[in-house]
Amino acid sequence: MNGEYDFWLLDLDGTLVDVEWSYTRDVFDRVGDRLGREFTDQEADIIWSGLSGSRDRQLEEWGIDPQEFWTAFHDEEDPLVRAEQTYLHEDAEFVAELEFPVGLVTHCQEFLCEPVLDHLDIHDWFDARLCCTEQTGWKPDPDPVQSVMDDLGVGHNGHRGVLAGDGACDVGAAWNAGLDAIHVERVGHERRGQCVLGDYRVQSFDELF
């Protein structure tokens, strides 16, 4: 499969890396204190992992203002602590061996993403990176994907590419940008509550090679 594509794009959290549950639980405890609402383990898991699709829509269904939540959430996240509690999936190490342009398109905010890449020493895996914002758009919007493709120099010249991620938004972003999609299912269909379709559906990147 390595030779099927001219470039690769990848998501970060839940795809290449994950965070120890104790960190996630602690953050949601502190956010809950600020909002005056407790979050169960299941609710924290749903939001952290994006199990129900749109996190903002899920928050609204629970009667929580998304802007208020994310302000509290980002205030309570400690970039250095998060980086120390983040680990690399062993099967993700193939990215270092790719001989094609590689880009990162992540919803992880830059102030959190950069320390994680530094801590895991994987900065040099990527030839271009984009941390999505309101200005860039969010996956499944193709705009952030197209932006990274442009940075890689593969935006409009017929190159064949693939985007790999752990969420339905990653698959949607790939297809909306005219790319093939790899869905890597890290949490399992039962925990997610649905199956996510993709051009490739795997539990480990090892299955691709």
Automatic annotation (TrEMBL):
GO molecular function terms attached to this record: phosphoglycolate phosphatase activity
Any single biological process term in GO: DNA repair
Claim: Hydrolase is one of the keywords in the record: yes
Keywords attached to this entry: Hydrolase
InterPro entries: HAD-like_hydrolase_sf (IPR050155), HAD-like_sf (IPR036412), HAD_2 (IPR041492), HAD_sf (IPR023214)
Any Pfam family the entry gives: HAD_2
Keyword Transcription (UniProt): no
PANTHER family noted in UniProt: PHOSPHOGLYCOLATE PHOSPHATASE (PTHR43434)
Stated name of the protein: HAD hydrolase-like protein
Organism whose genome encodes this protein: Natronorubrum halalkaliphilum
